[in-house]
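Anyone opening a protein record will find just a pair of labelled lines. The record below illustrates this layout.
***
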Amino acid sequence: MDAGNLCVVSEFVLLGLCHSWTMQVLLLLIFFMLYLIIVFGNIAIIILIITDPHLHSPMYFLLANLSFVDMWLCSVTTPKMITDFVRENKTISFGGCMCQVLFVHFFGGGEMVLLVVMAYDRYVAICKPLHYSTIMNLQKCIGLVATSWTTDFVHAMSQMAVIVQLPFCGPREIDSFFCDIPLVIKLACIDSYNLGILMNADSGVPAMTCFIVLLISYTYILLTVRQSSKAGASRALSTCTAHITVVLLFFGPCIFIYVWPLSITWVDKFLAVFYSVITPLLNPAIYTLRNKEIKNALKRFRSYYLHPKGNI
């Protein structure tokens, strides 16, 4: 136990995405612009949903929470990655590394549960439309979101509690742009093979479970849509297609990283970038550009707040 509590390594070295200086400058510009778009895009969605009474419904309440989670999931890793592009010594403190482990899995798990809740919301709206207002009221949505936040925090804390107790006394290079459980465990001064499998399963099994539940939910929804009227079916199909796209984009990389037995460094890096940067970037576009109510709300926001003289 004393050895487990001993931490000789005070910081880790992040090897990043590449070693070419020219490529790092190019990636700096790209990811800086993407990060700004992600933050301001998701903030815009949250503000729009809060200020427009027409969007005060369970579906948009959940969408605002998804935007909040996306913004923070990206913020856990991307600012550090951006600053490291211009730093020769790409180090991260032990405490900073543990915080990344905690919050990546906290917000990542939060997104998984939110996507399941959003699928349930669409299931009730499409398959049980007459009972929607009774089943999916705002109070129930708040309860579901609060439960998911609590569960995800406890899960992430339990994982970090295991990692922080490991003895780190030798290698300290992490071949990625942020600290993640599989990479950190490999640096421990113990035989970490079984622990690595256990911790990966602790992340992979919930991801697989949520993914299977989502597939079953949307399959049932699509089967129900086939029996609806053409107008209703077209709208429901458009909504479900957007949701399924988000599910595949987020769960695909996560499942590959934590469930796939083979580890290929450049593939893992690409997938980590995808679910921590690209998915938070695409979510606002997928949920807003295809949504007429969001477009109408944006027009009302512009006319009321940006051109107030026209309303006098």
About this structure: Strands lie at 11-14, 91-93, 173-174. The chain has eleven helices and three strands.
